[in-house]
Amino acid sequence: MKFSERLYQELQPIWQANHNHPFVQEMGAGTLDKEKFRFYMIQDYLYLIDYAKLFALGAMKASDVKTMGRFASLLNSTLNEEMSLHREYAVKFDISEEELENASPSPTTLAYSHYMLHVGQNGTLADLVAALLPCMWSYWEIGKELSKIPGASDHEFYGEWINMYSSEEFGQLAIWCIELLDELTLGLPEKELKKLEEIFLNTTRFEYMFWDMAYNQAMWPTNE
Ligand SMILES: Cc1ncc(CN)c(N)n1
After folding, report:
1. What separation in Å is there between the alpha carbon of 47 and the centre of ligand 1?
2. Which residue has its alpha carbon closest to ligand 1 atom 5?
3. Catalytic site residues?
């Protein structure tokens, strides 16, 4: 069995929890409170700035030019395609450039992005890919699920989000990362696979926490 198939099977309960989160469900139903989405967009923009750096680290750790090139194009598509969606949403949701630039990351945004960067900087290329994969894979899965709901892709506010993450182009990027992880894990001892599974599980858990943080608009518990 490929390592990605093992991960997919073993982590079904938490994947389902992500799909069933009220933020995701209400986005699909078109009933999500706009203030929650606005909060999410700002936090996600901050998150993606750090996330994009993982692709630069991936290019550094890659051992061949082809893999370096793929990481470079993932970096480009995150900065110039995925984050363009956020910039368009910023206009739609009245988020000024200044607000976006001065926004502070929530504790969950900080914890999630710093965990990934820590793994990416200190671990192997397989560790880095295990850390970044739930982000791409789970969004693609959620995008595809939501796109099956009649009318969801045409929703005035949430349709663009669903179209971006259910798209063939986004899916291709996720597939490349899945295949790379399978390639990098071929023949690895069980002890090493367990460590990678733990990393993948941690960022999958962070995905859930990110939905929850956005739904509750959760910042630090004190204002100081
Ligand atoms: C928190 C989060 N996870 C995943 C993605 C998809 N790149 C995202 N934009 N934000």
Report:
1. 8
2. 135
3. 207
